[in-house]
């Protein structure tokens, strides 16, 4: 069992995932700080509150911390936008790579000849079905 665990953990994808989790955690801390220290006070200026997380309301004995929820929503939106941009860039790079690979593979001569014959036959059948050009 220890050998299987060693094999599992030494795979490149597991190590890449671990690095991604660590970087994601650090990035999350950075986004939380950005939201708490810069964006919330800026939004709080418009809500007449210096600290957005201090916005609350009470119903009976229950206290609803709307401001903290708004902080969390802002953090979520920032994180999702960054992930969206990373995926978009990754997909664009992958598509470019696939296009380059497709253009580099030469078409065999036999296949090229078959394509030309197919195109000629298609043009001929289209030309024959045209009533104006049909010979009587």
TrEMBL record:
This is Large-conductance mechanosensitive channel. The gene is mscL. It is found in: Cell membrane; Membrane. It is a multi-pass membrane protein. Channel that opens in response to stretch forces in the membrane lipid bilayer. May participate in the regulation of osmotic pressure changes within the cell. Belongs to the MscL family. The chain crosses the membrane at residues 12-32, 73-90. The keyword Oxidoreductase does not apply. InterPro entries: MS_channel, MSC/AndL, MscL_channel. It comes from the Bacteria. NCBIfam families: mscL. Its main location: membrane. Coiled coil: none annotated. Homopentamer. Keywords: Cell membrane, Ion channel, Ion transport, Membrane, Transmembrane, Transmembrane helix, Transport. The lineage of its organism: Bacteria, Bacillati, Bacillota, Bacilli, Lactobacillales. HAMAP family: MscL (MF_00115).
């Amino acid at each position: 069992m220890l050998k299987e665990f060693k094999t599992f953990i030494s795979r490149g994808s597991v190590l890449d995932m671990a690095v991604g989790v660590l970087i994601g955690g650090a990035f999350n801390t950075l986004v939380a700080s950005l939201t708490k220290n810069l964006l919330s006070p800026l939004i709080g200026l418009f809500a007449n509150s210096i600290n957005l997380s201090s916005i609350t309301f009470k119903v009976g004995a229950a206290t609803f911390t709307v401001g903290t929820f708004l902080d969390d929503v802002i953090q979520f939106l920032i994180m999702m936008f960054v992930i969206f941009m990373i995926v978009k860039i990754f997909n664009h790079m992958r598509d470019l790579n696939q296009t380059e690979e497709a253009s580099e593979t030469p078409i065999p001569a036999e296949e090229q000849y078959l394509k030309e014959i197919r195109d000629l036959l298609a043009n001929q059948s289209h030309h024959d079905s045209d009533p104006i050009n049909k010979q009587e």
